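call fold(seq) -> tokens
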Amino acid sequence: MPVRLSVLALILMAFPALAEVAQGPKNVPEFTPAFKNQTRAPELRGMPRMRVETIADGLDQAWGVEVLPDGRYLVTERVGRLNLITPGGDVTRVRGVPKVLARGQGGLLDVALAEDFAESGTIYLTYAKSVRGGSVTALARARLDGTTLREVEEIFLQSPPSRDPKHYGSRVVPANGALYLTLGERSNRADRELAQDPGTTYGKVMRITPDGRAELVSLGHRNPQGADIHPGTGELWTLEHGPAGGDELNRIEPGGNYGWPVVSYGENYNGTPIGTGKSSAPGMIEPVYYWDPVIAPGGFAFYDGSLFKGWRHDVVAASLNPGGLVRLKFTGGRVIGEARFLEDLGRMRDVEIDRDGAILALAGGGSSRLVRIVPDG
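ret:
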């Protein structure tokens, strides 16, 4: 009688795995994952050798990167600069950027192209803005005209203001004629409680409609600095910083509550429990994957190129600590393997996929560089 192998078995044969990735002890070892491979999935074998090409260096805390249709790149610097960078490394500053609050974790943050950019030239920027009572995360729309932004218009302001210049979020993802925007809960003990308050925009994912309305998509987030649309399903996924442990990769469900600060797979930096002291609660959505200890995630992208064979729809995520990039492989919406690579490049803030399938990343801290990563051989 012939033996029939499951899809999962076939995938595991194609991508044989070892023990989990070396990563040190957990902050909260008493927490048990809700399902297999929700954390510390087996290490992926067969990672290719890679070549890292520096496109531009000397950037000041680069935060977001976007690929233009003509092959150039838009890169933000937290100090408030937006740059046009050619594949050859020529850097031109774009004029007309809104004034930003470059303090704490604030500044000029993400950049994204409108879905109709080729016709409209429209881009979106997120940034920290100083307002009466503190600061907020702001979202602006503008038209890129050569090296100048024109028709700059703020289309969203987080509310209420906070006096803590931390946890702004904020990735912006144009999709299906609207915008998804991730928003942090501003970090301090009082403000973080508002992540559970649907009357505020702290710790939320929002959807900005074409007519400018801001709609709540999900709540209970800490500081989501990664977001992307799954190319196979059209679903929005986010990646967020946990406290000590508990970084999360989430599949966003409209109306979903992702738990912060009631539950978390991490703990406070002083070792005290988060909220109820539990990792899960009824009515609160489990992360698809979490890390303990943290990877301190920045941006991520679903791989949709062809240079890296066998990586289709894998997550490629930036890590600030310990640094480098993280790859996750899935089947049936669940992680089956993890790999860490290029940790020697240090802090990584954002990831994009270039038009030819190369991985673009923003590497470094105060002095950053834009790099392209391709298979070596």
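Residues 36 and 112 are 35 Å apart (CA to CA).
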